[in-house]
Amino acid sequence: MAKARRRWRRGQSGLDPARLVFIDESAAKTNMTRLRGRAPKGQRLVCHAPHGHWGTTTMISSVRLDGTTACMTIEGATNTEVFQSYVREILVPTLRPADIVVMDNLGAHKNDRTLALIEQAGAQVRFLPAYSPDLNPIEMMWSKVKALLRKAQARTHSDLLNAIASALLAVSPQDALGWFSACGYNFI
């Protein structure tokens, strides 16, 4: 694992960040609330979270250096078939020749048919070393998106989808530039 990380770090300087497209999945729920808050001195902060049944939505997205994203949501968890649909219907139309699609090592990402769809679009595929969220700017994007979702406190599925769309629109080029830089991607 350490060798793979060192090898990736050495190769980072040769990558054009403008060509990198990072992909990852994350979950959102209708019971999300803020993790921290403030109240007047001596008073308790009160925030309500639903108990019992709540819906889980999986977000599959990409992020580029300019902050653009290509996102799809589904109810429940992802699998190879769902990920392949994302690549075919959402990601491939946004790809340009010579793009480099970077993913983690989730089994659903390594399907030959899915990889062929990306390569047919003229893009390359690269896999991050195992356990390396510090090399993946999309992890920081998910942090911002989830903070905005917690703030929105969407309690219905349709409200959650609207909140996800708003949160993704809040991803700015400055955000993405900072995330890419924090992960060590040098600018050419």
TrEMBL record:
GO MF terms held by the record: nucleic acid binding
Tree of life domain: Bacteria
Database matches in Pfam families: DDE_3
Transmembrane segment boundaries: none
Record-annotated Tc1-like transposase DDE domain positions: 19-160
Name by which UniProt lists this protein: Transposase
